[in-house]
Specification:
3-stranded mixed sheet; alpha+beta; single chain
Length: 100
C-alpha cells in the first residue's frame, strides 16, 4: 500500500524540485513553500516532533508514511527522514491516495 501512496512522491520529484532531508524541509515549511510534508515512520522522535510542531505552527499538512529507505527510494536519493512536496496538485494527489 505504501508503494501506491509514495509512488506519487517520486513522480513529483521527477516533475520538479521536491526537497528531502530535515534541514531543507524545515526551511520550506518556514518559508511557506511546503504544501505537504511526508515524515518517515522510523525517523527519530526528535525529528518527528520538530517537524510536526513546525507543520502545525505554519499550518502545513503532514503525514507519516513508509520508512526512511522508502522515502529515499521513491525520491531517487539515499535514506531520507522527510520529504517536502511543494506543489499543490501533487500534494492533493498524494493526500487523495491516503483517503482511499
Amino acid at each position: 500500500m505504501n508503494e501506491r501512496r509514495l509512488g506519487m512522491s517520486g513522480t513529483a520529484k521527477r516533475a520538479g524540485p521536491v526537497p528531502t532531508g530535515e534541514f531543507i524541509c524545515a526551511k520550506s515549511i518556514k518559508a511557506g513553500i511546503a504544501k505537504l510534508v511526508i515524515i518517515a515512520c522510523d525517523a527519530s522522535d526528535n525529528t518527528k516532533k520538530s517537524l510536526t510542531n513546525s507543520c502545525k505552527y505554519y499550518n502545513v499538512r503532514h503525514i507519516e508514511c513508509g520508512t526512511m529507505a522508502d522515502l529515499g527510494k521513491y525520491t531517487g536519493s539515499s535514506e531520507r527522514a522527510v520529504v517536502s512536496v511543494n506543489d499543490n496538485n501533487f500534494a492533493k494527489a498524494i493526500l487523495d491516495r491516503f483517503r482511499n
